[in-house]
Design a protein that fits this description.
This protein has two domains: about 70 residues; about 90 residues, Alpha Horseshoe (Serine Threonine Protein Phosphatase 5, Tetratricopeptide repeat). With about 220 residues, it is an all-alpha fold. It has eleven helices and no strands.
């Protein structure tokens, strides 16, 4: 048996459509309005995000310029602006990493650690989180906290800074007297380094400086 709508002529079908449209006009209008608002809102969000990111980039450029010119007060002020006004931006994390590097260079390891703690909380991108974890492990090792450093290295995602992470793991294991584990870590670092990498000879030197397995057994 044919369905009822199949026997309607074109005029009757058109009339049914018009009646349905009239009955549901308000719902249709609301749906269209909401859709347009969502599209407009998304576009506005994109524009706002692009503008904010651009402003953060300019602040970071000014920050690095102040650092290079040894204008420490200006650099601290600009870092503060990045941290308060653009905390969700990766540029704020970059600034904290630079500050941590400077503090570490001065031997102020606790201050460097504090900068990295802030960066760890603020970082949203996985690669940035891995970089912060790597830097924290380096500071922990410098402070003599090798076991802590190993735990922080475990937070570095596989594939992120692989050669650096393996080299630092080798340094950490060597400091703990775990020579064979350190040897494996340095070998892993070398396998991930480009043959032309300037750091390759340095890692090879670390590997060669480890006590031989036979010497370890005799001791």
């Amino acid at each position: 048996m044919r369905m009822a709508f199949e026997v309607l002529d074109e005029h009757e079908q058109g009339e049914l459509v018009r009646k349905w449209l009239r009955a549901n006009a308000l719902s249709i209008a609301i749906g269209i309005g909401i859709g347009l608002l969502l599209i407009f809102g998304y576009k506005q969000w994109q524009v706002r995000e692009a503008r904010t990111n651009g402003e953060a980039a300019m602040q970071f450029a000014a920050f690095t310029e102040a650092l290079d010119a040894k204008r420490d007060e200006d650099a601290l002020r600009l870092a503060g602006i990045l941290r308060t006004d653009y905390a969700k931006s990766s540029y704020a994390v970059f600034a904290a990493l630079r500050q941590a590097e400077i503090e570490a260079g001065k031997g102020e390891l606790d201050k460097a650690d504090a900068e990295l703690d802030w960066a760890a909380k603020a970082a949203s991108e996985p690669a940035l989180k891995s970089l912060v974890a790597l830097r924290k492990a380096r500071i922990s090792l410098a402070k003599g906290n090798a076991e802590v450093a190993l735990g922080q290295l475990d937070q570095v995602a596989k594939g992120d800074f692989a050669a650096l992470a393996s080299e630092l793991r080798g340094d950490t294991l060597a400091s703990l007297g775990r020579t064979e584990d350190a040897r494996a870590a340095y070998a892993d670092a070398l396998s991930k380094l480009d043959p032309q990498s300037p750091n390759r000879s340095f890692v090879e030197m670390k590997l060669n400086d480890l006590p031989a397995a036979a010497e370890k057994q005799k001791s």
